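Notebook entry, structure prediction.
Reason for the run: the old model in the group folder had no record of what sequence produced it. Starting over properly, with the input documented here first.
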Amino acid sequence: MSNGPWTDEENDLIVADYFAMLVDDLAGKPLNKAASYRQLADRIDRSAKAIEYKHGVVAEL
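New structure, fully documented this time:
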């Protein structure tokens, strides 16, 4: 797992994933945040917990 700075590509994927979940939530679709974090973690070199944290940061913006 990477412990270095987040790349622009990783940040773009995090934000896109966050907004995709937001759209689903607003549409009334059931969410499985943990599954979303795990799926994204499989695509980038970050843990599901790191992704969960970044989603929290995006929510604060």
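Summary: DSSP finds three helices and no strands in the chain.
The old model has been moved to the deprecated folder.
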